[in-house]
Design a protein that fits this description.
Blueprint: H1 5-40, H2 42-66, H3 70-79, H4 81-118, H5 120-123, H6 129-151, H7 155-180, H8 183-210
Helix pairs in contact: 1-2, 1-7, 1-8, 2-4, 2-6, 3-4, 4-6, 6-7, 6-8, 7-8
């Protein structure tokens, strides 16, 4: 094997924003969770994570809708941007329908599921589920916007969108967690990922206008 140092460094530099973006995206929920553990104790964090784990199904459902299409998105963005826009509209509708269906099921069945999984001690915290579902919905759309920008090879936009989410998280976590307690973790996620979606959507619109065809 041959290692070309110059090319390796160039690749490392070009992909560095993507790595930092993923770290920033991960921090959106990590920071408020740690603040919750510090302010309310490890038990409160454990309860929140137990309830919020059910809401992840919403995010995974959205991921299963768009992940198989990312290769097609990349191809259509290069060859026919109008077809890419039609595919984007259908995908957004599909994500909305799937996440809405999962959200309704969780809101209807969340309490009995929590009782079966964790017992009566956690059932009283079912109220944590609704903000957690909304948080995972915003997370899913942020991931989708991010992956679309990666399909367009706009690593800088991915970095800026996720960096904005991380900055909002750091700036707001203390106030929101102190105000809303365990639900504060979800509300931080809703706010931060919501800002990320807006930023990423702006870059996606810009990149789309620059495409040929």
């Amino acid at each position: 094997p041959q290692v070309r140092i110059g090319r390796a460094i160039k690749t490392l530099v070009s992909l560095a924003p993507l790595v930092v973006a993923q770290i920033a995206a991960t921090s959106v929920l990590t920071v408020p969770r740690q603040m919750l553990a510090t302010s309310d104790g490890a038990q409160a964090l454990g309860v929140y994570q137990a309830v919020a784990s059910l809401a992840v199904i919403v995010q995974m459902g959205a991921t299963y809708v768009y992940s198989p299409l990312m290769g097609e998105f990349a191809d259509k963005f290069r060859t026919d941007k109008r077809a890419a826009m039609r595919l984007l509209r259908r995908t957004v509708v599909g994500i909305a329908l799937v996440t809405a269906a999962f959200s309704v099921l969780l809101l209807l069945l969340g309490r009995p599921i929590l009782w079966v999984m964790y017992g009566s001690g956690v059932v009283e915290y079912t109220y944590l589920l609704q903000p957690a579902v909304l948080c995972t919905l915003m997370t899913a759309f942020a991931w989708f916007m991010n992956d679309l920008l990666l399909a367009l090879r706009d690593f800088k936009a991915s970095f800026l969108g996720n960096a904005a989410a991380a900055v909002v998280t750091v700036a707001s976590s203390t106030i929101i967690v102190d105000t809303f307690g365990m639900n504060g973790v979800s509300w931080v996620g809703v706010l931060s990922y919501g800002i990320a979606v807006l930023v990423l959507l702006g870059f996606l619109a810009r990149d789309y206008r620059r495409l040929d065809g």
